[in-house]
Amino acid sequence: MGIFKRLRDLTMASINDLLDKAEDPVKMLNQFLRDMEEDIMEAESAVAKQIAIEKKFKQQAEEAEDMVNRRGEQAMKALEQGNEELARKALQDKKEHQARYDEFKRQYDIAKTNADQLRSQLSEMKDEFSKMKNKKDLLIARAESAKAQKQINQAMSGFGTDNAAKGFDRMTEKVLQMEAEAEASKEMRGSNRSLDDELDALDKGGSAVDDELAIMKAQLAAKNAKKQEL
Fold first, then answer.
1. What's the CA gap between 205 and 5, in Å, rounded?
2. Residue 203 and residue 220: Cα distance in Å, rounded?
3. What is the pLDDT of residue 19?
4. 149/174 Cα distance (integer angstroms)
5. To 5 degrees, how large is the angle CA 177–CA 178–CA 181?
6. Which backbone phi and psi does 160 adopt, to 5 degrees?
7. Coiled-coil intervals in this record (predicted)?
8. Cβ within 8 Å of residue 140, ≥6 positions away
9. What is the per-residue pLDDT across 206-221, written as a single tens digit (0 to 9) for each?
């Protein structure tokens, strides 16, 4: 039947072939499963209809069989009572019901064979769907892993290149220059402080020198005066 053809064609190998052409494997896999679910629903509907036909012919065959048995009993009863004409009519009707039973039984056997076949195919579809579902989970996991690996590879493609290395060298030189400038600034500040300290010390020590110089001048003046007296 047509409703089963797509499932038979849609094997795991064909899915993998289709995935090679798919832009998004995850979306494609989900679409495949949705298509299969629709096929299964159609198959279930077909199986249900075939089962209904099977049951209908079975019921008709059973009813015809019951009439065959009943007319046989009635013919015997009529004959026992001496009513041969009525017995003949009962047997004639029995023959007609027997023909009906034979036809309904034949149709029932065909319907049952078809229904059994459809049941088996539906079971295969559901088993295949379950396998595909498990396969989908595995393929999606592989697709996500491949996507993550691709993203990492793209991120790493510019990692450690000559441009990056040159950039690090430039930044290293700049940091060294900044450190040298900071050190020079520190030395200049230290030099300025030493000069200031010397000048401050000179200012502070000037009065003592002047005092000592004045004392020496006084002593010299006294010495000269004493020489003049002599």
1. 115
2. 26
3. 53
4. 36
5. 85
6. 75, 20
7. 26-142
8. 25, 26, 29
9. 566 677 777 887 888 8
pLDDT tens digit string along 31-56?
888 888 888 898 899 899 999 999 99
Residues 40/126, Cβ–Cβ less than 8 Å: yes
- Nearest 5°: the CA angle 62, 121, 111 is 20
pLDDT (0 to 100) of residue 88:
93
Tokens for 213, please give them.
């110089």
CB–CB of 129/42 below 8 Å? no
Neighbours of 94 (CB within 10 A): 20
pLDDT tens digit string along 113-170? 999 999 998 998 899 888 888 888 888 788 788 788 888 877 776 655 566 667 777 8
Cβ-contact 16, 136 below 8 angstroms: no
Question: Residue 196: what residue type?
Answer: D
Q: Encoding tokens for residue 97?
A: 């019901």
Q: Please give the mean pLDDT across all residues of the chain.
A: 79
Instruction: Note whether 111 and 57 are within 8 A (CB).
Output: yes
CB of 33 closer than 8 Å to CB of 128: no
Q: How far apart are CA 227 and CA 224, in angstroms?
A: 5
Instruction: Give the span between the Cα atoms of 44 and 71, in whole angstroms.
Output: 40
Report the alpha-carbon distance of residue 62 to residue 101 in Å, rounded.
7
Nearest to 35 by CA among 99, 114, 103, 125: 125
